[in-house]
Amino acid sequence: MNDITLYEVGPRDGLQNETTIVATAIKAELINKLSETGLKKIEATSFVSPKWVPQMADNKELMASIKRPSAVTFSALTPNLKGMEAAVEAGLQEVAIFGAASQTFSRKNINCSIEESLDKFKPVLELAKAHNIAVRGYVSCVSHCPYEGKINPAIVATVSEQMLAMGCYSISLGDTTGEATPKDIINMLSAVSALIPMEQLALHCHDTYGQGLANILTALDMGIRTIDSAVAGLGGCPYAKGASGNVATEDVLYMLNGLGLKTGVDLQKIIDTSWFISKALGRNPNSKVAIAKK
Ligand code: HMG
Ligand code: MG
Fold first, then answer.
1. For residue 173, what is the domain's CATH number?
2. Which of 48, 117, 140 to mutate to test the pocket of ligand 1 (most atoms within 8 A of CB)?
3. Cα dist from 34 to 91, 124, 198, 270, whole Å
4. pLDDT tens sequence across 243-253
5. Which residue is catalytic, options 141, 145, 168, 237?
6. Confidence at 290, pLDDT banded by 50, 70, 90
7. pTM
8. Closest-lying ligand to the alpha carbon of 156?
9. Residues near 165 by beta carbon (within 8 Å), at least 6 away in sequence
10. pLDDT above 70 covers what percent of the chain?
11. What is the bridge-based pairing of β-strands 5-8 and 226-229?
12. What is the largest CA-CA distance in the chain?
């Protein structure tokens, strides 16, 4: 039994921010390599508008071309019914709806208010239920918003509770801009965990200000057991200007190994995968551990 679930978001959150289109074969090789590391959860792609995020336009072809080992659950973003229908066709076992605790970010990211977004998520959850597909809920801007600044933890808690009540099995709390420090995480998690058990929460840190590991350690101390990360520290959000990649999977894993927390994930295989995708993108990994262990 593992102590911590590492939820790999590199192929989606990581690659969505690449301006040059990455070949589907490279994405598939990345996912196949990740599938062999011991990871149990991999977010592979998004079923969003190709006009909004062109990098994810090959979602169908990608899902058809990857290996699907039974030990791994593959997930994808589905903002509305159209996306959910495509995800069902592509055989996803899990999907994610993505809301926000900031009205402006919600409008910039999915073109509607927070309230409207919850309405658009309802048919997604209904179709998911009919097909026995698990739904994860993201809440973005849990600490800061690129447009509105500091966000009130009470709003994060309310939106998270609403998404859970709609049928999400878990809520991933996104520090979209990577501006949070451990004190922000304590305040935010205290508010959210007053309404939702820690086992149903995940932390999703972007590492823009180098606070990712400190924030994760703080959340682990408070009882969080699911951590989102991206191999090679890939990524960012196209609608959060300046936000850098997610905290690197290999950096999180190195810390968890040192803490004696079991994940079932092989560090060397993650490092090898980190170098594979970084070389394919023509740069070094955005990770301390991959560089140190080259
Ligand atoms: P909209 O323009 O309001 O949608 O966009 P619409 O329903 O009016 O449709 C407009 C056009 O898009 C139509 O096509 C639809 O068919 C098409 P047209 O008639 O113009 O040719 N369309 C779609 N096509 C494919 N798949 C779909 C789909 N839906 C509509 N699912 C929409 C609304 C949500 C679609 C749009 O805003 C969108 O795609 N946004 C995605 C933004 C995104 O992917 N952002 C990054 C992911 S979130 C993130 O990174 C944060 C996270 O990591 C956590 C954190 O770090 O905080 C999760
Ligand atoms: Mg993100």
1. 3.20.20.70
2. 48
3. 19, 27, 26, 7
4. 689 999 999 99
5. 237
6. very high
7. 0.97
8. 1
9. none
10. 97
11. parallel
12. 47
Number of domains in the chain: 1
Q: Which ligand is nearest to the Cα of residue 142, counting in written order?
A: 1
Distance 238 CA to ligand 1 centre (A): 12
Q: Domain of residue 87: give its range.
A: 5-292
At 195 the pLDDT is 98
Rounded to a whole number of angstroms, the distance between the first and last alpha carbons of the chain is: 30
Q: Which pairs count as long-range contacts for 182-189, CB under 8 Å and 24+ apart, including other chains?
A: 182/211, 182/214, 182/215, 182/217, 182/218, 184/143, 184/144, 184/215, 185/143, 185/215, 185/218, 185/219, 185/222, 186/218, 186/222, 187/153, 188/142, 188/143, 188/153, 188/156, 189/219, 189/222, 189/224
Tokens of 274: 């980190």
Please write the tens of the pLDDT for every residue from 143-197: 999 999 999 999 999 999 999 999 999 999 999 999 999 999 999 999 999 999 9
